[in-house]
């Protein structure tokens, strides 16, 4: 397997995440220390994405809620950003003032397309504004992904109904039913599983049944994470202490519809369900 976590600079954190890839259980203290280290490392990473000047003005973000209440959090909500880059989402989640009516949304973590995990708000201590009805109970994880795409009358491919989709990513688009969707990357899946395992080991109140997608808690308004996010299989891996370093899907780049089918089958076999 290529080093999916090569972006990690801290050696202790790298050893910890390597243990997770190998299916080794982690005690609560080690997991919490790992999350603290990840948060510290994220400061430099976010700064590199948004520029030092912007970071010094608008980070750490004030766009966060209060402390978790007793027995919380109980779950995690997965999202897509609806954006092409991590930088635009990190700026959106910052303290930069917004126009009236633009809301106060934020999230605990952003996972870039290269798998880099960036902690915006400490998931161990504070709530975020990522899924209205679940803000007080769930951690929010955002993945850089445009979601469903549309074609304009002139033939342009748009995301969020307005913005031109990058020409160098047009070949990645996947057709699912009548919709066009941007795929996730294998590196995002790897980082999602590693991060959720850290969270599970660190926070004993988290429950498998409370790991959901945004569309599960806001079905009328939201479609994320879309049909190319294999939610059950990902979270089955999160809650099983098994190694997944050498699975075939970890060698891929973007996860096509065919790759997703193969991923699901591989997970079922690994977990004894196939």
Low-confidence stretches: none
Could you tell me the strand content as a percent range? 5-15%
Secondary-structure element order, as H and E?
Answer: HHHEHEEEEEEEEHEHHH
Number of strands: 10
Mean pLDDT: 96
Count of domains: 1
Q: CATH topology, which one?
A: Lysozyme-like
Shape: globular
| Helix/strand structural class | alpha/beta
The CATH homologous superfamily corresponds to Peptidoglycan recognition protein-like
CATH 2nd-level architecture: 3-Layer(aba) Sandwich
**What's the quaternary structure here?**
single chain
Strand order of the largest sheet: 3-2-4-1-10
Let me know the largest β-sheet: 5 strands, mixed
Percent helix: 25-40%
Count of runs of 4 or more consecutive helical residues: 8
Radius of gyration, whole Å: 18 Å
Top CATH class: Alpha Beta
Labels describing this entry:
8 helices, Lysozyme-like, five-stranded antiparallel beta sheet, alpha/beta, 274 residues
Write the layout of secondary structure elements.
Layout lengths: L10 H11 L6 H23 L1 H7 L16 E6 L5 H7 L16 E3 L5 E3 L18 E6 L4 E4 L5 E3 L3 E2 L9 E3 L2 E3 L4 H17 L8 E3 H4 L13 H8 L18 H14 L4
Helix pairs in contact: 2-3, 2-5, 5-7, 7-8
């Amino acid at each position: 397997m290529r080093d999916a976590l090569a972006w990690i600079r801290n050696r202790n954190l790298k050893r910890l995440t390597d243990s997770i890839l190998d299916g080794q259980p982690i005690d609560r203290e080690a997991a919490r220390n790992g999350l603290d280290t990840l948060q510290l490392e994220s400061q430099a990473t976010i700064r590199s994405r948004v520029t030092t000047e912007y970071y010094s003005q608008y980070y750490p973000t004030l766009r966060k809620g209060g402390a978790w209440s007793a027995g919380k959090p109980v779950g995690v909500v997965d999202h897509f950003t609806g954006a092409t880059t991590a930088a635009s989402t990190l700026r959106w989640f910052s303290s930069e003032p917004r126009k009236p009516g633009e809301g106060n949304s934020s999230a605990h973590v952003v996972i870039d397309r290269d798998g880099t995990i960036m902690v915006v708000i400490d998931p161990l201590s504070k709530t975020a504004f990522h899924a209205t009805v679940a803000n007080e109970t769930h951690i929010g994880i955002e993945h850089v992904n445009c979601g469903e795409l549309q074609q304009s009358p002139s033939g342009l491919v748009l995301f969020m109904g307005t913005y031109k989709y990058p020409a160098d990513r047009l070949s990645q688009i996947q057709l699912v039913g009548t919709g066009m969707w941007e795929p996730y990357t294998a590196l995002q899946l790897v980082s999602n599983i590693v991060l959720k395992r850290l969270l599970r080991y660190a926070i004993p109140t988290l429950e498998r049944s409370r790991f959901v997608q945004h569309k599960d808690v806001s079905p009328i308004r939201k479609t994320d994470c879309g049909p190319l996010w294999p939610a059950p299989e990902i979270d089955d891996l999160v809650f099983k202490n098994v190694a997944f370093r050498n699975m075939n899907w970890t060698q891929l780049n973007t996860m096509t519809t065919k790759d997703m089918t193969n991923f699901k089958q591989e997970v079922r076999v690994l977990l004894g369900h196939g």
